[in-house]
């Protein structure tokens, strides 16, 4: 175990523990279906439910390398979030295999942290107290205080340590959730629609901060999004699903340099148009 210094854009140098690179994900022949468990018809013309099986994911085969930011796109309801929950260990009712660092993954782990689509900050806790949750096992109080402040500074929330969630903007709440997730020092960070509900400018700033944090920390991130531009600007790898039952329509590594600009990078803009068309929108706007 060594230490490296990472530089926040505004806050100078922040000391961050560096552990062995982890977070290699392999998904083999993954299939998932739901069962219609209704006991009554929805209306008189509706047939009596027969507990039909509804296929959601169809023979998914993917690999995500250590430290990659992977963005997953697809039509609404196709199974993107379902895949995320399976890999995170929250859903074990599937066929196929999910391997993380060469081991079969069968349940949630403190090394694999999930940031949900809607705010999950505890409203009765301050920003500092929420971030501290990930460090509650740390015995050295002085070291714990340093770590809490470290992660708060990484997401640029210095000065808001004693604020409650309702006193923060939507973007600041997202950053506080990110700080709490990073404080655990996970191998994999799962994010389900992390920018939903944010106004345009806050969305852009939050996106930039997630990219910066990923470059600083270097952990594997799996992000579900409906926003094609977000996926192309952020991702090291992009996955595009078909409509349900979801199949992989595209799995591509993005080698475009950052910061990415659709106007200055014609190949990136062409890929953007291709994905829009693939998802049923003939003209990217």
Tell me what the structure shows:
The strands form three sheets. A six-stranded mixed sheet has the order 8-9-10-5-11-12, sandwiched between helices. It has a four-stranded antiparallel sheet with strand order 4-3-6-7, covered by helices on one side. A two-stranded antiparallel sheet has the order 1-2. It is built from seven helices and twelve strands. The N and C termini lie far apart (48 Å). It is globular. The protein is an alpha/beta fold and 285 residues long. The chain is 28% helix and 26% strand. Helix 4 runs parallel beside helix 5.
Task: Give the SSE map.
Layout: E1 2-8, E2 12-18, E3 25-35, E4 53-64, E5 69-73, H1 80-88, E6 95-100, E7 103-104, E8 112-115, H2 127-132, H3 141-154, H4 170-183, E9 188-192, H5 200-217, E10 220-224, H6 228-234, E11 237-241, E12 248-253, H7 266-278
Parallel strand pairs: 5-10, 5-11, 8-9, 9-10
Antiparallel strand pairs: 1-2, 3-4, 3-6, 6-7, 11-12
